[in-house]
Amino acid sequence: MADPRGFLKVRERELPAYRPVPVRLMDWREVHEHRAEDSAIVKVQAGRCMDCGIPFCHQGCPLGNLIPDWNDLVWRDQWEDAIDRLHATNNFPEFTGRVCPAPCESSCVLGINQPAVTIKNVEVSIIDEAFARGYVVPQIPQRLTGKTVAVVGSGPAGLAAAQQLTRAGHTVAVYERDATIGGLLRYGIPDFKLEKTHIDRRLAQMEAEGTRFRPGVEIGVDITWDELRSRFDAVVLATGATVPRELPIPGNDLEGVHYAMEFLPQANAVVAGETVEDQILATGKHVVVIGGGDTGSDCIGTSLRQGAASVTTLAIGKKPPTSRPENQPWPTDPLLFEVSSSHAEGGERDYLASTVELIGDEHGHVTGLKVATTEYLPDGRRVPQAGTERIIPADLVLVAMGFTGPETSLLVQQTGAGLTSRGLVARNDDFSSALPGVFVTGDAGRGQSLIVWAIAEGRATAATVDAYLQGTTELPAPVRATTVALRP
Amino acid sequence: MTTPLHSATSSAMSAAPAAQGLYDPRAEHDACGVAFVATLRGTPGRDIVDAGLTALLNLDHRGAVGAEENSGDGAGILTQIPDAFIRDVVAVDLPPVGSYAIGMAFLPQDAAEAAEVVGAVELIAAQERLEVLAWRDVPVTADLVGPSARASMPTFRQLVVADPERKLSGIELDRRTYRLRKRSENELGLFFASLSARTLTYKGMLTTAQLEPFFPDLSDPRYASELALVHSRFSTNTFPSWPLAQPFRMIAHNGEINTVRGNRNWMAARQGKLASEHLGDLAPLLPVCSDGASDSASFDEVLELLHLGGRSLPHAVLMMVPEAWENHAEMSPERRAFYEFHANLIEAWDGPACLNFTDGTLIGAVLDRNGLRPGRFWVTEDGLVVLASEAGVLDIDPATVVQKGRLEPGRMFLVDTAAGRIVPDDEIKSQLAAQRPYKQWVEENSVFLDALPDREHVVHSPASVQRRQRAFGYTEEEVKILLTPMANTAAEPLGAMGTDTPIAVLSSRPRLLFDYFTQMFAQVTNPPLDAIREELVTSIGGAIGPEPNLLSDTAEHARKVVLSFPVIDNDDLAKIINIHKAPSLGGTFDATTIRGLFRVDGGGEGLRDRLEEIFDEVDLAVAQGTSFIVLSDRDSYQDYAPIPSLLLVSAVHHHLLRKHTRTQVSLIVEAGDVREVHHTALLIGYGAAAVNPYLAMETVEDLAKSGYLDVTPDKAVKNLIKALGKGVLKVMSKMGISTMSSYRGAQVFEALGLSHELIGDYFTGTTSRLGGIGLDVIAAEVAARHTEAYPSSGNFQAHQRLAVGGEYQWRRDGEEHLFDPETVFRLQHSTRTRQFDVFREYTQRVDDQTARLMTLRGLLQFSGDRTPVPLDEVEPVSEIVKRFNTGAMSYGSISQEAHETLAIAMNRLGARSNTGEGGEDSERLHDPERRSKVKQIASGRFGVTSEYLTFADDIQIKLAQGAKPGEGGQLPGHKVYPWVAKTRHSTPGVGLISPPPHHDIYSIEDLAQLIHDAKNANPSARIHVKLVSEFGVGTVATGVSKAHADVVLISGHDGGTGASPLTSLKHAGTPWEIGLAETQQTLVLNNLRDRIVVQVDGQMKTGRDVIIGALLGAEEFGFATAPMVVSGCIMMRVCHLDTCPVGVATQNPELRKRFTGSPEFVVNFFEFIAEEVREHLAALGFRTLEEAVGQVQALDTRKAVDHWKAQGLDLAPVLAVPQPVEGSSLRNTTTQDHGLARALDNQLIASAAAALEDGTPVSIDVPVRNVNRTVGTMLGHEVTKRYGGDGLPDDTIDVTLTGSAGQSLGAFLPRGITLRLFGDANDYVGKGLSGGRIVVRPDRSAVLTGASNVIAGNVIGYGATGGEIFLRGLVGERFGVRNSGATLVVEGVGDHGCEYMTGGTVLVLGNTGRNFGAGMSGGTAYVLDLREEALNTVAATTGELTLSGLDDDDLVLVEGLLRRHAEETGSRVAEALLADLPTSLARFTKVLPTEYARIRTALAKADADSVDLSVPGAWEEILEVARG
């Protein structure tokens, strides 16, 4: 560690500023302003790192990012080594550095009594700097194994697995049912959080390394699962958890009621220059977003950019505390009241709001929501409190209540793959499934989770696949299928 | 050589059991009292023998008895041949004295066997041309001795032989009897106490009091001699042995040879070249050092060989125990050349020693180079010379004494009885130095590397460096944490919080072979050294090259290449490799490089085969006359991997030893795997002459070029070399070894996890108690690393450069730690919210880790066949917690908040917290809530006062600590905050040093003395002795029990909360499981378990840990890291940086505010642990923890161990059930007899009743003898108990003593007591003086009263915090060491005066020895006519000490002290100085630590400005001002 007293010299976090709200609402570009002094901020923050004997951040990160190591390297201006150490555990820091909720920062030891190091910003700075300086180059394997692997799904888990396996010398093809590679990254996350050039840049590297991309092919439909299995030595299933959680209340079939994952992909496609017929638009509308998570926040930012008349977010639970509550002690990742960039851009947030009914007009179009105050029963269940109902007017209701699991009907039909009681694709602790040569990675096996978990699973799955194909493996396996974050 | 007739004959005369369980007789140590008496009058007399025997009786307290009161550890006497007596009792005509030899044979008890041996001896005598004149049965009073001594008692018979031609006499006859004796030993197993024409020894397994009555010969009026050498032994065990009693044939030794393993090996190596015209064919006489002998016995054997081989006795002694000549600026070149020449022939036998030697005419003594043993002498007007370990062994009328003195390090004391004079040291040495042209020989034959042609420097590419880093298993962490700091600062990196990773054999990762070895360290039986402050006695340079015959002296012997440092860079190595090309040398030297590579796919078998090939290559090179063999692991590639350099070196070393060709070549290692101090230390410890860690150097060069260092590539390499070399010196010092040549091959390491076969083949003589891996696993580990460099897939992993490491800082892909994010979190969460179920998750995870074999206890399981008892029948939590202790963490290293939290919690529980080394503030001391019950005494003695000890429940003497056994500590000035300084009785801002040794414990009998002192300072306190687990700790613990400690604490190697060099933190000591089991087994075998409590600590984390500790023999348990974590510690491991972010290990007021611990949490923790203990007890069927102590049968080794490395481990020795002698106990059942009832202080206390009652002044006048030890201390305790830390007004109790006072006169004496001694005093006067006054002046009748009169011994005023000492005369070494507040006046001091002093005033009215003011960080010394060359070199050259004349205040002070000195002692020196005061005062130099002066000025100013130092930032500001 370069400066053992750095954390005492600088007591506060400092992050690069966002662009002013009115300005950023005028475009879809990332909300961060890139300024020359950013790198100075980053160095100072990296210098706050205490290089702990037990770096809890390194544990808090599912990938096991070597955070103290690259903090030190940034502090020393050793950017090339910094990206090397970052890439050692993370295939795609440009994604996590932008959209990860940063459990590492929750577990930062400084966080016990001071604001945590701005780890995520250091991370994204390293990779941005590395791309800018040309340090990110294809890592082409010196020798191919002759083995072939299909990866189904091109979200972060699939891509991570594909890159790892390609670099290990296998011939890897990534299948994607959508028109473009990227999965949730491309379609789920708005550009103002993650511009798509970041994905394209990474895909270019992967192609140069030898990974083959097959977009627009849906396994089970365009090719059967069995055909796929006989064509490849191994198949990695990385199809995500795409089934949205439903809103089981009267009126949920009204027009103007959409899942966030209908709304956001269309918006993203349009930003990417594609044409979408009958696009769901918030323009001029009173938008209500049900669900207070990240997807909900993405809906806010997108709606505002489309010119919504108003945006209201309804969350069924209590407003989270602004500082760590006692029952979520350090170093666990607490649920806190957060103000994302989208929240800062406008809209209202309503808590303890249980939507009991969607109200429509005579055309079957939604006009409002009947919302009651949530009541917590002694057993922890949340119910609408009778007599507290009120009406919130709405033209567009976006349901962003999360996802229940993967789409599995074709898979089960064609392969007899097992499912868990939660509807997830059954797998062993090492990501293998009951089907020889078939491996399950990412949200499809874990259920809805974070990108950082997806990458971690993809990497770990690659190790299992490599060992399956070659007998041994030197690939790292940061997590197992059952690994979970530290909870009290 | 024929097979010995009775190979067990001499071993049968020893009561020591064979090795069993973890007990190994090789671990035995002893220490002793020694004395000699001689006359200069030229005629033998009965009086001399009587005087010798009397002196022996008065050394009784330095000996010891075991469990049986009437079995001593050993006593003996050596005299001249008592011709008149022998002539009368031997029934034959004898030739003149000198022409016959007589020897004391220890024959078998069985008459028939004895007869057989006698016959065989006669046969050998005939072969050796000796005529057997007689055999005489020696009368003994057998029923005097106890059963164990009796059982092993030999038959004593004296053999008388002579030259059949009656031509030989004296030494010439002895050369022939030597052949007879050695052959009898080798061929018959017969032991002779002596067999000589010049001396005769009587000795046995006796107490000092038994010796004379046991051998009635000794009482015979006809028994006369001119000299008598006597010895009383204190062995650490209770199995003394008849042959190992002393004196030996030529010496009696008080001390210990630390380097003895290496010395013996080198002697064995030299045997191939040994030849002597005097001794004839040596083959049947070999080995020189017999097996199973003690260090002293081996020394005697070699000394005897050198002497009989043609050198005078003083010459031979100086070869083996040279003075510290290497850094001695004042020595004459001729004398230096004498030593330098002989250093090429034989390495020093190093260790604390007072060696007394005689050939029957000359008798003398020397100390080790460091002066670590006491020796005092007297000469009377009628020619009686007495030398002894202490003053007062003979009642000599002071009026007759004409000379008094003390042995000094590096000086020889020699009496020539034939010439009737004492031969001065200078005369002896000048004569020896002039005997041959040593200076010319050395100058003409020394080759310096600088003089060899320079070689072009080779730089390797970063890619090449990285690939080889992978091949040698380098980790990112090692590069960052080890190499970077060494390259930047030339010093070893520090760490903190111990180690919680698995030992190498339990690690699932491939580990370097180095990691399977742990460093041994000195504790109790010999002191570690301080290589920094006492650098002048150390040397890490040396010469390398072939050694010719030891027994001759020629110019050829001087031909060597001189290396100033044991680590050499790549260019220097290239010079040596190319030495045959050096034109100036004309090809006199040649180097051969041997490739240490093996076919990696050949596995262990391939490795073995390759080693055999290497042996052949080496043999060939030796045969061809090469001088240097370079063992190199360079140039590995895909198929050929490097042999671990340690294996390579040690295998070749031992191969050459076996071939007796070892001394014909030097081994130089070119090793890629070396990157730590520990690695370098091992290679040298196993025989390497020099180490070239080429890859480490290339690595730091590369780092420097990439901008990772603050220095240039060149400087980085130099720094690395320096850090490694200095680090090795530290490792040596830990073991008390001062020179590289003695350390080389000394094998002061213990193996942990290596198979006996591997050790036997390649690391012969190394201890490896649990077995372990062999060549197969070593080869597999190499292969695993090799694959990283040459991956089988052909693909390097992208972005994976080196492995992360994770040994020092936790990493997910790194080594496992017991404390990881999850265990830390669960432990904190459960104790903070008092959730036992969450706590179980924590212990579950820790115990699971144990099951994954991270610890040795993980290999154990509870035996399944026990009947459980219901939980509610098990003793309650409240009883169990009373057995718990928190570890010794000083206030200073941890914050007040953290320290008090632990204390409050432990007091609430009825358990014990520990002050640590740093004293205790009086407001806490007397606060029942916040006090720590256990008060520690560590080597720095910080805050150790009468008050501190009086108000202790327990007093713990720390001999070593787990994190850095054998090392001292340093609290840097910036951490000595004002409140810390107050508690420590020191100055804020001034750094504090804890010396590596306790300067009053250089041996086991010294420890007994300190225990006695502590007990006197508080008779109701339990005295603990804290040891660290290593080979032999059980034996030391036995000694500790014999030394009357109440509690012995065995610490694991892994504990430790303070800062420590990483080398020590990781590589010294062993797990507590082994040390505890060894302790229990050895105590039980010795029947000493009943009287002592055994405590254990070291990474104790769960109830299971406690139960395993109990079953292995502990009744109390210590915890440190876990309660710290409970208090908020998150294992930052930066305790040494004062930046602890959670306010635990810091004094920074700002950070301390962040402390979140609370006593409740700690209470929760201990109650949870106790609850788990209850559950385990119930399951095992014990109702109390007491019942479980020592019930090792309740443990099994785990059946199915599925671990690629641990499979070879055998834990059976840990679980061995000691075979107790009848009536011996498995646990503590009784208490020690401290002998306080016999103390002189009882009389003093009675006489001082009035003063104690109400402060009425009293005067007391009593005689005193050397057996009255620790006089005044118990009286002081009574004062302090009644009057607290302030004591009474000065002189309230005025005690006048007359005679020779025993050791520790006035220890911890509080204010109000004055001791006035007329006579002289021994060591440790005024130890821990706490305000009292001590005046020592010569006896009223003494004629010898001049300034050259030695008045008191060594280590006076050690750790004194207040009071005064006036000494009229000279004193010994280490005067005023760590004084922090007392005023001391003396008329001359030995070496190392005022060492580590932090406060107080010292006035020296005479000479100072060398190294004055070393490590002195505070206080003031005034020295008359100071010789500046006597100052510590570092302090003098770096300006650490400021020298000046006296200012006005000083003048007043010094004049006042002179007047008081004259008044109190009648000093003529003071009177003379006072007679012409202005001139006298101008002769004084004031010695003042520079930083101390500055900070005092700054503090005075702050005080004047009323600055509040507890305000954040205020203290830093003062420091800044002070430092300019």
From TrEMBL, chain A:
Biological classification of the source: Bacteria, Bacillati, Actinomycetota, Actinomycetes, Micrococcales
A Pfam family it matches: Pyr_redox_2
UniProt keyword terms in alphabetical order: Amino-acid biosynthesis, Glutamate biosynthesis, Iron, Iron-sulfur, Metal-binding, Oxidoreductase
Ranges of residues in domain 4Fe-4S ferredoxin-type: 40-71
Name of the protein this chain belongs to: Glutamate synthase subunit beta
Gene Ontology MF annotations: iron-sulfur cluster binding; metal ion binding; oxidoreductase activity, acting on the CH-NH2 group of donors, NAD or NADP as acceptor
BP-aspect Gene Ontology terms: glutamate biosynthetic process
Pathway entry: Amino-acid biosynthesis
